[in-house]
Amino acid sequence: MDFTILADTRFxxxxxxxxxxxxxxxxxxxxxxxxxxxxxxx
Amino acid sequence: xxxxxxxxxxxxxxIAAMIGTAIGLGNIWRFPYLCGKYGGASFLIPYIILLxxxxxxxxxxxxxxxxxxxxxxxxxxxxxKFPFGRDIGAWGVIGPFFLYSYYIVITSWVIFFIFASFExxxxxxxxxxxxxxxxxxxxxxxxxxxxxxxxxxxxxxxVQKGIERACKVMIPTLFVLLIIVAIRxxxxxxxxxxxEFYMRPRWGGLLNVETWIAALGQxxxxxxxxxxxxxxxxxxxxDEWGIPMNALSVTLGNTSASILAGFAIFxxxxxxxxxxxIGSAESIGLTFFVLPKVFEVMPGGxxxxxxxxxxxxxxxxxxxxxxxxxAIAWLKDEVGWSRKQSAIFTGIILWIMGLPFIFNxxxxxxxxxxxxxxxxxxxxxxxxxxxxxxxxxxxxxGYFMKNRGFDxxxxxxxxxxxxxxLKPWIKATVPVFIALLFILSLLKILQDNxxxxxxxxxxxxxKFVSIGITPMTILAIIFICLIFWGGFIYSTVKVLTIEKxxxxxxxxxxxxxx
Lengths: 42, 514
Prior knowledge:
The structure holds two protein chains of two kinds. Chain A is mainly α.
């Protein structure tokens, strides 16, 4: 497979920033769900 | 019924784990480089000022936040009712994931180089070409998998049986191995010039703004601040352990390792003819291109190269486990998973997150292209996100915990810090200094990427011209050894003796007599 795109500056910045923002948001959503479930249980 | 929260079993185990968090790749490959570049022993003057003036307080704030709340970062910020506490604390759980994702890739290179050194795989080859071809080989997948399994395995065993036990073995071994390599290095014929490069004070560096920026950056990152690791380890601290003396012991232990690393690297490099190369090589270049060349020509290089990479791997693994721990603690505390489940799950996620950095190694081209993704993630996480989270933790203690925070810092401490100066120091001086570092780092990143014009002129460091070992160099070495090594041994013995003394009083029924 050709991974040349990973060394591209613009793609690299876009990839890294998207990964950070996306995972952070996903984690926040997961936390909200976990919290809601815990409250419901109580 | 609430589950009993894990704590460190022994005081020494806690110190070893904290030092293990702090000692990482940056100590071995970055500190000696900065010392040599920015004026030898004179670099230590801004370093000492900023270490004891700024960084140690930032570390104590993270410990306070963890120990007072007895929670992982997300729960800790939520518990003290910090505005948007859950969202900010969430960064303390997920942020370290990004750091770990590339840190473990570098750790896996180190693990591979242990075997490469013992087997002499890079001997007789161009080390840069060798390293470059290794990045695009199938071996990287194997060592990366091993590294993730190692950290997840240690964490799955728990705080006492996993983290504490591993650090109790790895950290003393790291020091012993470092001493062995340093002795070998300083006893090579012609090692004097390397010692001179490393330790002769060159006062010109003190007037250089970049020296102070570099020192501030080093003291902050060397203590693993701003990534949730110190906070979560602080939450496992027992209430009877005073924070200030333990912070002093950990800080001195961390710097002792950095200084020893310089003695292991520079004398050997200069003695074996790589002085000029090593003086200009930074981080990855120093560790994976230059040092292998040094080991190749060093008598017994197979053995000493292997030992060097083992100690480097110990430092890297002990740091990596502390970066993975906040997420495990969150899964355990908030979601209710077992530690084993949490360790396996985070291990899988982190292994997947590391893959893009590995695939990047298969790109055709130079090292710059192969590490393009890794360096971008490092800029965002290490240079931007970490200082921001660090400042927030300090503000949380200074402005939101108020007296509770300052009281927690002095709780059961033999050496108490006066509130009169501690409050303004933590509320104003420490965050301002770290904010300054953040702004300067940001400006440097923007100018390096051509987004803004040059505002911080690039420094060439302080030029080194050998004049032979002078009494000044010898005095500098004695001074540094006394401050850091002497201080580390003294403070560690002191905190452990206090602990023993307290236990003795309790067993004799004298604990109320004080």
